[in-house]
Amino acid sequence: MRKLKFSPSTRIILADTVTPVSIYLRLRTLYPNAILLESSDYHGHENAWSFVCF
Fold first, then answer.
1. For the segment 23-33, what is each residue's pLDDT rounded down to a tens digit?
2. 6, 42, 53 from 34: Cα distances, Å
3. I need a labelling partner for 41 at 20 to 30 A (CA). Which of 2, 11, 20, 49 fits?
4. In contact, 3 and 13? CB cutoff 8 Å
5. How far, in Å, are 2, 20, 33, 39 from residue 26 at the CA level?
6. pTM for this one?
7. Does some domain include residue 44?
8. Which domain holds residue 37?
9. What is the dihedral of CA 14, 19, 25, 27, to 10 degrees?
10. Count of structural domains, the chain
11. What is the chain's mean pLDDT, rounded?
12. Are 38 and 50 a contacting pair, CB within 8 Å?
């Protein structure tokens, strides 16, 4: 099995300035294998997370 090294970093951004989709669209031109992962509860938004991976 091959081991991978990764460095997670986080940033909290105000939701009214940019969206996860707009960040993803900017990054996918630089990183063709970038992905956007989103999680949310159907009934509530307090535990919604977005992960942009590149």
1. 899 999 899 99
2. 14, 25, 5
3. 11
4. no
5. 30, 10, 13, 20
6. 0.61
7. yes
8. 20-53
9. 20
10. 1
11. 83
12. yes
Q: Which two tokens stand for residue 15?
A: 């939701």
The tokens describing 18, both together, are 């940019």
Whether residue 3 is contained in a domain is answered as: no
CA distance 4 to 33: 16
Residue 28, domain member (yes or no) = yes
**What's the angle, vertex CA 9, arms to CA 6 and CA 10, rounded to 5?**
150
Domain-embedded: residue 35: yes
Compute φ and ψ for 26, nearest 5 degrees: -70, -40
Q: What percent of the chain has pLDDT over 70?
A: 89
Of 49, 27, 30, nearest in space to 39 by CA? 49
